[in-house]
Design goal:
Blueprint: H1 6-12, H2 15-20, E1 22-23, H3 25-33, E2 37-41, H4 45-50, E3 57-58, E4 76-80, H5 85-96, E5 101-104, H6 107-114, H7 118-127
Parallel strand pairs: 1-5, 2-3, 2-4, 4-5
Length: about 130
């Protein structure tokens, strides 16, 4: 495990890291379909109960420290929430814990918009 302090992370932060910490929908879907990404919905329990999408794993942000053993260190961990604010907090935490983590810039609301009609059908055929 390659844990890093927040100070060390900030000292090494550069344009490459700024780019690497983000992932957009097409790349996320590609990695997920290839079995190279673990997608984590980090919203609160009540939000998840009210609505969720058909893939990914639910680990609320406030439970993340106690559930790290559910994450695969050999995969890219993609964190997501409706927009991206909490997903970025989760990504930073996981990065400091030694995971290769990225946050979904488009958020879950972007997924809902992206996977409509034929795109949903085509994507589901691709991952089955």
């Amino acid at each position: 495990m390659n844990e890093k302090s927040f100070d060390a992370y900030l000292r090494s932060f550069d344009y490459d890291e700024r780019k690497a910490m983000k992932i957009q929908l097409p790349e996320m879907f590609e990695l997920y379909a290839a079995g190279k990404a673990q997608v984590i919905d980090i919203r609160f329990k009540e939000e998840y109960e009210a609505w969720h999408i058909g893939f990914g794993q639910h680990i609320p942000l406030n439970e993340l420290p106690d559930r790290l053993d559910e994450l695969d260190r050999d995969m890219t961990i993609v964190t997501m929430c409706p927009h991206y604010d909490r997903a970025e907090i989760a990504r930073l935490y996981l990065t400091l814990k030694g995971f290769h983590a990225r946050y979904l810039t488009d958020g879950m609301l972007g997924i809902v918009d992206y996977l409509r009609g034929d795109r949903a059908k085509n994507y589901m055929e691709k991952i089955r």
